[in-house]
Write a structure and sequence with these properties.
alpha/beta, 2 domains, 4-stranded antiparallel beta sheet, 4-stranded parallel beta sheet, 35% helix, 16% strand, globular
């Protein structure tokens, strides 16, 4: 995963609650490798075809070039389908600003370099209103500062746990975070062997019950 410290560009506003993973990445596209084309596939295309529906936001300019998606609460609910994040990422969306996220979806974002920005309702409304008035406004998500700005004006802050922030800034996953603590883990094991030797049998022996 590439490090991410800032995502900026045009933002698309889909200010709806409970947008689930089947809306983001419909199950009928699950065998495709073109994840970007499948993004919001049931809405982007006309029924029973892959002809674009010109009325859908992401088929219009300037939102074909959207780098940020703005949505409502509980974004990414439903299944644990990681394809939903892959589709956003491959389309070019590097951050989602929403009031809240499904926890599994949020974690999938972190593992794939997409920034999940959970902001309060007032901040979300402010961002959406500014973008709606100026569709080509530059929205910037600052991972280090945990803030969202519109045309250079910081509008809202978002929550990001220190470990999640580090994953994004350094391009790490949970395994890499654990490996980074290898010395601390080894020190704990050595100390625990002294405290509770019965839990640490010698190599090649079977623990006693």
């Amino acid at each position: 995963m590439k490090p991410v410290d800032r995502v900026e560009g045009v933002a698309a506003v889909l200010l709806r609650d409970d947008i689930d993973t089947d809306q983001i990445f419909p199950a009928r596209f699950v065998t495709t490798r073109n994840y970007a084309a499948a993004l919001f596939g049931s809405s982007r295309y006309r029924p029973d075809s892959l002809e674009e529906d010109p009325a859908f936001l992401l088929n219009m300019e300037p939102w074909r070039r959207a780098r940020i998606l703005i949505a409502g609460r509980n974004f990414g609910c439903g299944s644990s389908r990681e394809h939903a994040v892959w589709a956003l990422r491959d389309f070019g969306i590097g951050a989602v600003v929403a009031e809240s996220f499904n926890p599994i979806f949020r974690d999938n974002c972190l593992r794939n370099g997409v920034v999940p920005c959970a902001v309060d309702r007032a901040g979300l409304r402010d961002i959406a209103d500014r973008v709606s008035r100026h569709p080509t406004a530059c929205v910037a998500v600052d991972v280090r500062g945990r803030s969202v700005a519109v045309d250079g004006v910081v509008v809202a802050a978002f929550d990001l746990a220190p470990a999640a922030q580090r994953m994004l800034l350094e391009g790490l996953d949970e395994v890499a975070l654990a490996i980074d603590k290898a010395n601390a883990i080894a020190a704990f094991e050595r100390a625990d062997r002294q405290r509770r030797p019965w839990l640490w049998p010698a190599a090649g022996t079977t623990p006693q019950r």
